[in-house]
Write a structure and sequence with these properties.
CATH class of one domain: Mainly Alpha
Strand order of the largest sheet: 1-2
Structural class: mainly alpha
Number of strands: 2
Shape: globular
Number of helices: 6
Helix content: 40-55%
Distance between the termini: 27 Å
Largest sheet: 2 strands, antiparallel
């Protein structure tokens, strides 16, 4: 399956689970250590805008990557940002374009950058679903593709942990399914957040 289509499915599932949040949920802790649901969704919103800007050739501009300030309506802001990134990724020639991703240290092909975004949104959709205790609805082929991308993420401890895109990788037990493998490779402990 094409990476743009995979990403679209992951982003739409993230929108669905974010929109399941109610007023009293925004200050809940999440699997992202030290982040409330409000902070996690603000991060997701900023990442959508940043990746959309990168797809349009403006990824170097720091303003696109900033998290929205103020309480506002997190789910509405997230949906608008998701629409922005999905529109940007649907543009002609986007897979071959260079994306500048400052957090990851430089330029990447569109295909590779969208792959990063895709695996991030599989994981963030799970983060939100786990926080809210709602089921994650992603097809097996999407989860298998996410685990393949997660296996490509460097595991060097010098580039993992606080201040980096991913937490240190955790051991993947024999027989783990593709979602558990993805989560553990990117530093999540799914057993601590049963859905």
């Amino acid at each position: 399956m094409d990476v743009v289509e995979l990403d679209r499915m992951a982003v739409q599932e993230a929108v669905r689970v974010v929109e399941a949040a109610r007023d009293g949920d925004w200050e809940r802790d999440t699997p992202c250590a030290g982040w409330t649901l409000r902070r996690l969704v603000a991060h997701m919103t900023a990442q959508h805008h940043g990746f959309a800007a990168a797809a349009r050739g403006a990824g170097r501009e720091p303003g696109y990557w900033r998290e929205p300030e103020g309480a506002g309506e997190p789910a509405r802001a997230h949906r608008a940002a998701a629409d922005d990134v999905l529109g940007a990724f649907a543009g002609p020639g986007v897979r071959e374009r260079e994306f500048v991703l400052p957090e990851l240290g430089g330029g990447f092909s569109g295909r590779t950058a969208i792959g990063f975004h895709f695996v991030d949104y599989v994981v963030h959709a799970w983060d939100v679903a786990a926080t809210l205790g709602v089921p994650l609805r992603l097809a097996d082929d999407v989860l298998v593709a996410a685990s393949a991308v997660a296996r490509l993420v460097p595991t060097d401890p010098a580039g993992r942990g606080p201040g980096f895109a991913f937490a240190p990788a955790l051991k993947v037990p024999d027989g783990a399914g593709p979602l558990e493998e993805t989560l553990r490779l990117l530093g999540r402990e799914p057993e601590a957040w049963p859905v």
